[in-house]
Write a structure and sequence with these properties.
Blueprint: H1 2-11, H2 24-57, H3 73-102, E1 109-116, E2 119-124, E3 129-133, H4 139-143, E4 160-163, E5 167-174, E6 179-183, E7 188-192, E8 198-203, E9 208-214, E10 226-232, H5 234-259, H6 265-279, H7 281-284, H8 302-305, H9 310-319, H10 335-345, H11 359-366
Parallel strand pairs: 1-5, 4-10
Antiparallel strand pairs: 1-2, 2-3, 5-8, 6-7, 6-9, 9-10
Length: about 375
């Protein structure tokens, strides 16, 4: 078995082979892969070697005559027993590795990973930290207006930060369709299914930046859903958690203060255009024309222009629309941003309804106050 391990180390240098990874489990997966590969190569060489030898040495031109026999108990036992023994030899290390991959017990840190079209949301269950992680590659690179960067389509605005030397447990789920969280360097690839929670884990041995992608076809922007993990020493990770938690608490306090503020129509349109281009234009297009048969147009739409559909417009943006790719933005944007983008959609592209949505109205829909019941 030692020659297989040493050979797999050599095979790791081959660029078209799978990578060894940076975790103990990923290296076990790699060694298992190479072991099974070499066993398959040996079986292939043996079988095709015997076939070639039989064809050459037992051809009719050399006077060979086919043997006339039927059942042979000995041969049948051999060709049954040998494959069974080979399969057992392959299944034993594979089962051991798979059991280790599924053992999420005794974790030091748990991260809830939620996929949505088309971004990832991370929530640290032991810390008051959560955020969305979105593609950071510029639209000009995607459209060909700029040269591609080294990490084209593999860069995000907020990476997932994890400590090295700690066992991290992942809980995977989805807000809409099936996604798959895949980081090859960790040997972690787990589906994120709506309504279900799957588990995975890793223990990173080396600090650095590791990249992955959504590995399940999840819609139009499936290729724009990268994963970036920054692994830091435990001390640096703790400092990051404290700093990020404080920043997020301050941001929430600022957002609450914004609820009491009133925007003018020009202010709302300016902010709304920025939010629309960053979150809505990929589907509904910058000019609001949509994609016929796929994404509805907002320009001239009854939802965005008629006064009686104003409440419906608010509800769709805040809570999404079941059965479609329209996701809820109520948890992704602030009340002021939501008010601005809805105002923009009701006044841009010649819609010009004159409607001005304020953050207070949006906040009241996000957190409705239940009426007090008479006793």
């Amino acid at each position: 078995m030692m020659w297989l391990v040493s050979s797999s180390a050599f095979a790791n240098d081959i660029t078209f082979n799978m990578t060894r990874g940076v975790t103990a489990i990923s290296q076990q997966v790699y060694d298992l892969h190479m072991t099974i590969f070499y066993i398959c190569c040996a079986i292939g060489l043996l079988v095709f070697g015997i076939m070639l030898w039989s064809i050459v040495c037992h051809r009719k031109s050399r006077g060979a005559k086919a043997a006339q026999f039927h059942e042979s108990t000995r041969v049948e036992l051999l060709w049954t027993a040998i494959p069974v023994l080979i399969l057992i030899a392959m299944a034993a290390p594979a089962t051991s590795t798979l059991l280790k991959m599924e053992d999420t017990s005794k974790a030091d840190l748990t991260v809830l990973v939620t996929g949505s079209q088309w971004k990832w949301h991370y929530k640290y269950l032991e810390h008051p930290v959560e955020f969305y992680s979105l593609l950071a590659t510029s639209k000009k690179q995607i459209s060909g207006g700029e040269s591609k960067s080294d990490n084209y389509l593999l860069e995000v605005d907020q990476p997932l930060v994890l400590p090295i030397g700690k066992k991290i447990r992942f809980l995977m789920t989805s807000d809409d369709v099936i996604h798959s969280w895949w980081v090859p360097a960790f040997a972690v690839k787990k589906d994120a299914n709506p309504g279900f929670i799957n588990e995975a884990w890793t223990r990173i041995d080396k600090a650095g930046t590791y990249r992955g992608q959504c590995a399940e076809l999840c819609g139009k922007d499936h290729g724009f859903m990268p994963i970036v993990v920054m692994a830091k020493p435990a001390g640096e990770f703790d400092e990051w958690v404290v700093r990020t938690a404080a920043d997020q608490a301050a941001a929430k306090a600022h957002q609450q203060a914004q609820v009491a503020e009133s925007m003018t129509l020009p202010q709302a349109m300016e902010l709304g255009e920025k939010i629309y281009l960053g979150h809505c234009a990929a589907c509904h297009q910058p000019a609001g024309t949509g994609l016929p048969g796929i994404f509805p147009a907002l320009k001239g739409s009854k939802v965005t222009t008629l006064a009686e559909n104003r409440a419906q417009h608010l509800d769709i943006v805040l809570h999404g629309k079941s059965g479609t790719a329209m996701q809820p933005f109520g948890k992704q944007l602030t009340a002021q941003e939501l008010a601005a983008v809805i105002t923009y959609e009701r006044n841009a592209w010649d819609n010009k309804t004159g409607d001005l949505i304020q953050a207070a109205e949006v906040q009241s829909l996000l957190n409705p106050v239940e009426p007090i019941k008479d006793k």
